[in-house]
Amino acid sequence: MKYRTILMFGAPGSGKGTHGKILGSIPGFFHCACGDVFRNLRADSDLGKVFIAYSSRGKLVPDAPTVELWRNTITATTQTGRFHPKADTLVLDGIPRNVAQAKMLENTLDVVAVFYLSSSKTENLIARLQRRALKDNRLDDANLHIIRQRLKVYERETRPVLKFYGEKLVHAINTDGSPAATFAMILEQVVQLEK
C-alpha cells in the first residue's frame, strides 16, 4: 500500500518541521520528521554513530540507512496505532533528502503535494537555525560554518527533488512573514487538496 503523502520541503531553517508538526496535529494527518527520528537514536548505537559523524559536519546521512530507519519508524508507528495509513495523510519533512531517496520511496509514497517553503533572505534561515539551536539544544544548528555547509548541501543535493516531483505537485510558500501567515498559506493549499 502506498501512503498518501504531503512533503514539507525547504532549506534548513525554512520552517518545514514547525509547520509539519502543526499540520500533523490536525485529525487525519500524521507528521513524521526524519531529523527527529535520527536525533532520537541512541548515540552509542551503530546508526546513532553514523548520524553524529555526518550531521556534525553538516553532511547528509547515506541513503540506505536513512530510508531503512524511516521505514522502521513508520512500521512501528503503524503497529502502535499512532499512524493509520488507510485514513491518515502522511506529512513528511526531512525525507526524501535527494533524488536517490525519492526514487527509493517511489513505490511507498503517493505524493499528492510538495509544500516548498522558502525565504528570500538566507540571513532569515541562519537566524532561525541559531534560535533553534539555543531553544532545542541542537548542536548541529549552532555553528555558522556547519549551517553554511548544510545550506550548500541542500542546494546541491536536496533542491533537485523539486524537479523530480514536477511543477504540478509543488506549491511555493514564502516564509518571510509571520509563522501564522505562513501556516495560513499552507492550510489554504491543504483545503484545496481535500476538495
Rg calc: 16 Å
**Order of strands in the sheet with most strands:** 2-3-1-4-5
Q: Sketch the major β-sheet.
A: 5 strands, parallel
Order of SSEs: EHEHHHEHEHHHEH
- Percent helix, as a range, is 40-55%
Low-confidence stretches: none
So what's the oligomer here?
single chain
Tell me the number of structural domains.
Answer: 1
- Overall pLDDT: 89
Summarize this structure as a short list of keywords or feature phrases.
single chain, 195 residues, alpha/beta, 9 helices, globular, five-stranded parallel sheet, Rossmann fold
Detailed description of the structure:
It is a single chain. The protein has a single domain (3-194), classed as Rossmann fold (3-Layer(aba) Sandwich), CATH 3.40.50. The model has no long low-confidence stretch (mean pLDDT 89). Helix content is 51%, strand content 17%. The longest helix is centred in the middle third of the chain and has 17 residues, at 63-79. Strands 2-3-1-4-5 form a five-stranded parallel sheet. The protein has nine helices and five strands. The protein has helices at 16-24, 34-39, 46-55, 63-79, 99-104, 122-136, 144-158, 160-165, 179-194, and strands spanning 3-10, 29-33, 89-93, 109-118, 170-174. The protein has 195 residues and is an alpha/beta fold.
